[in-house]
Amino acid sequence: MAADAPPIDTDALIIGAGPVGLFAVFELGLLEIGAHVIDALPQPGGQPSELYPDKPIYDIPGIPVCSGQELIDGLMKQAAPFQPQFHLGHQVSTLQKQPDGRFLVETHKGLRLLARAVFIAAGVGAFVPKRLSVDGLDAFEDRQLFHSVADAAAFRGQHLVIVGGGDSALDWAIHFATEPAHLAASVTLLHRRDGFQAAPASVARMRELCDAGRMRFVVGQVDGIAQQDGRMTAIQVLGPDGSTSPLPLDALLVFHGMSPKLGPIADWQLALERKQLVVDTEKFQTSEPGIFAIGDINTYPGKRKLILCGFHEATLAAYAAQALIAPGKELPFQYTTSSTRLQRLLGVNSAVDR
């Protein structure tokens, strides 16, 4: 987005595409309020998708059991009729109130949005990748250094070094060593020890591929980089014996997991208590009118960090925001079971004009 381009105008901006943020899209949609959604991760889903996609969840009302990813898939489908606009891989850096009462929000990539109401649904903070502390490495971010794979085809035919010992590292190493459409020129898995926090089947498959010469496993840590003409040509690997050796590459993929950080939220002059945003229990509004906090990011007497509680908070915040966004537009309280207006919004076939 050009620096001089006008900001994107939206009624509601949701910071966080986890389950509570996604449900806020749905509740706002029922009130005929469109929303843009920002998340630091490259895909929607927040903690359930990133930390426990396959683990069962048992306390979602009406759903005896579902996996973290199944919950996110259902919420995405539920929000789809309202066509939310997602801005993924963006971390909000600044939030400033404007003279007309709206909020100007800017991300670290220069994306700018102007919103009438802001919903902070950032969970325990923005999930950001755990990085390697190597001098000069960050300069190659999104060129030769990657912490996620958005387009696997872009790595085809390259010499790849993949760092990590968890499921993501092994799964992608196996993928690039075996998938014909994305086959790399070479794949080297680098981990600090010969032990893994990954599925046993993935570890066994990795060792099979190494034995077959289709990929390589190296024990060690990244200790430095070599570069030429503005490109990274190799990493220096510190081995268990204390010696270093170069490892040539075209791209370095680092999968050391994600960590939540409150980040710039701490600088937005909102009331905080133990790194959580203080809200009321009527509107779930922060100390700044027009900014709401829902889910694990907020605190109030009796707070429980449960997804189902976040759904309740998102609902009341959406109704409170409706009065700010469209003060002259009165919508009667209606139920989706009987309201033809709501059913038309949802695209339900039973919705008929009366």
What's the helix and strand layout?
Layout: E1 8-15, H1 19-30, E2 35-39, H2 46-51, E3 56-57, E4 66-67, H3 68-79, E5 85-88, E6 92-97, E7 103-107, E8 112-120, E9 126-129, E10 145-146, E11 159-163, H4 167-178, E12 186-191, H5 200-211, E13 216-219, E14 221-228, E15 231-238, E16 244-248, E17 251-254, E18 258-261, E19 272-273, E20 276-278, E21 291-293, E22 298-299, H6 307-325, H7 340-346
Parallel strand pairs: 1-2, 1-8, 2-5, 8-21, 10-17, 11-12, 11-17, 12-13, 20-22
Antiparallel strand pairs: 3-4, 6-7, 7-8, 9-18, 14-15, 15-16, 19-20
Helix pairs in contact: 1-3, 1-6, 4-5
N→C terminal distance = 45 Å
Rg, alpha carbons:
23 Å
Oligomer designation? single chain
How many helical elements? Answer: 7
Structural class: alpha/beta
DSSP, total strands = 22
Mean pLDDT: 91
Summarize the helix and strand pattern as letters. EHEHEEHEEEEEEEHEHEEEEEEEEEEHH
Unreliable spans are none
Main β-sheet description: 7 strands, mixed
- The share of residues in helices is 10-25%
Portion in strands: 25-35%
General form: elongated
Structure characteristics:
about 350 residues, 7 helices, five-stranded parallel sheet
Please describe what this structure looks like.
By secondary structure, the chain is α/β, with parallel strands linked by helices. The chain is built from seven helices and 22 strands. Strand 11 (about 160-165), helix 4 and strand 12 (about 185-190) form a beta-alpha-beta unit. The chain has helices at about 20-30, 45-50, 70-80, 165-180, 200-210, 305-325, 340-345, and strands spanning about 10-15, 35-40, 55, 65, 85-90, 90-95, 105, 110-120, 125-130, 145, 160-165, 185-190, 215-220, 220-230, 230-240, 245-250, 250-255, 260, 270-275, 275-280, 290-295, 300. The strands form six sheets. Strands 1, 2, 5, 6, 7, 8 and 21 form a seven-stranded mixed beta sheet that branches.
